[in-house]
Structure formats: structure tokens, C-alpha cells
Amino acid sequence: MIKSKSILSFLTLTFFTLFTIFYSCWIDSNYFNYWPSIPPLNLFLYNLDWSNLSLHGLHSKWLHLFVNGPLLFGPSLWVLTFWGIYKMFRFRKNLHYLLSGSVIVSGLGLLSIQPHQEPRFLLPLLIPVCIIASHTLLTLTPTSRKVFWKLHFLHTILGTIFYGFLHQSGVIPTISYIKGSNQFEDIKSIVIWKTFDFPKTLLLRTSTSDLNLINLQGLNEISMLDKVCKELKVTQKGILVFPLNAFKTFGVLDLVVWNSFGFHLDMDRIDDYFENGFKANGICVVKIYRFCSRYLEFDQI
């Protein structure tokens, strides 16, 4: 009787799992007018293509293991998890914990293959990390547990400061300035480079219902200049928004209409800070026609 119930449960779970997968693929295929469209496979293949990911930023394969994992979960929790995985595989512990450890190792391995790596990509590992860490934590001495919790609380506080006040901190002030400034009332185009996309709904006003929002993502500097000044043909009613420390081809400080100042940090492009220095900071706004005039002068030299 028990065996038949187990088989029935397995078949029911299998049926609804397959039904959900096929139904999701059917919706995705109809939406994109492409068959078959398998979202997880599409995502994986997209992230293996360097030409796609060069727009978002390319990273080393060790970044998830040594940077993103500790950044997202905390160094103490991350180390505790892998210490637990090591002990479980070595001593063949409970099957449930071995399964969780296998999910972490295999998931981390697959995600590390991709050239573009962000901390949020590791969020699916949250549950198995908690399972392994909670079990391992119980095996520690009381003193070790106290040290763990102190380090974990410290990471939480620092993470709140970092992601709450430093990371991409210039985006909201810049959006507020663009929308509230009288000199941008008749603006028609906003070109964004190397920063988070701006929600169009936060920028629209009655006079800017036809606002054209263009995101150049992570184009290299020369490609960005050519795109803005030679291809887009943006009128005088256009502005360019970008992190000041990301640009180094020629001086733009005298062209800046607005600068968010503060400590605007972008973890996807941390290399810009080391290459160009931490002095020039914040997101700046320049008028495209003045910016391109300077570029064309520079290009002719």
C-alpha cells in the first residue's frame, strides 16, 4: 500500500512538472514567435556568447566563488557552507544534505562557466546554502557559533550600507534632477551609458510624452562616441548620462550640466575605478550637441 502511494505520488509530481515545463515553453514560444523556445536553455546559451555579454561586462570564472558568493551570503556563511559540504562528502552524511551540497557545487560550477557573473545569479543557491550551513553550525562549539553570528551581523550591516547607499547611488538623484529641472522640459532623447537603465515612467512629463530613451549598456568608449555622435543623429534636445569616472578620452568637466556627486559605485564595472581613479565620481549629465562638438574637434586632431 505504501509502495503504491509512493509510485502514485511520483507519477503525479512527474506529470505536473512536465506539464508546467511544456506549458511555460509554449507561452514563451508564442510570445517570441520562435519554436521551440526553452527559457533556461536560451538563458544559458546567451550567457555563453562573449559578444552578447561584452555589453554587460566580462568577468573571471573565479568571481562567483571568491567574490560574489561571500558578497551575497556573507564570508562567514559562505565558508561555513563549504566546510559543511566538505565534511558531508567526506563522511557520507544524510542524503538530504548531500543533495543540497551537490546542488551548490553543480550550480556554482555551471554559473561560473558564464563570462558574465553577478551576485544575484547565485540567489537560487540560497535554500541549499541555508540547509548546509544550519546543519554545520550545530556541529560548532558555542564560541565558534558566537564568532560566526558576529561576523554575519557585521556583513549584514556593511551590506546594507553598501547596497543601500553606495551601489548605483547616483541613479535616483539624476532621475529626479532630469525630471525636475526646467532646462530639460523640452528634452526629446536621453542616452544612458554604463549605468542602470532609467525607468521611462519616472522621467515622463506632459511635454515629454514622446521621450526617446536609449541605453548603450557597456559599449566601449570609442563605440559609444561613434554611436552617439555619428549614428544616432540625436538633436540638440538630447542629453547623455554616464558615470564620470568611466570616461577618459577627453575632458568633459566643463560640459557637465549636472553631477550627482556622492560615491556612485558600480560593481559590474569596478575596473573603471582602478583605471580612471576614484576622484571623478558620480553620474553626470551633458548635452549631446556640446559633447559631440568636443568629440568631433578631438577626432580631427
Task: Give a written overview of the molecule.
With 301 residues, the chain is of the alpha/beta class. It has a domain at 184-299. The protein is built from twelve helices and five strands. The chain has a five-stranded mixed β-sheet with strand order 2-1-3-5-4. Helix 4 packs across helix 5 (75-91), helix 5 (75-91) packs across helix 6 (95-113) and helix 5 (75-91) packs across helix 7. The protein is globular. It is a multi-pass membrane protein. Pathway: Glycolipid biosynthesis; glycosylphosphatidylinositol-anchor biosynthesis. It is found in: Endoplasmic reticulum membrane.
Helix-strand blueprint:
Elements: H1 2-32, H2 39-48, H3 50-53, H4 63-73, H5 75-91, H6 95-113, H7 126-137, H8 142-166, H9 171-180, E1 189-192, E2 212-215, H10 221-231, E3 238-243, E4 256-259, H11 271-276, E5 283-287, H12 288-300
Parallel strand pairs: 1-2, 1-3
Antiparallel strand pairs: 3-5, 4-5
Helix pairs in contact: 4-5, 5-6, 5-7, 6-7
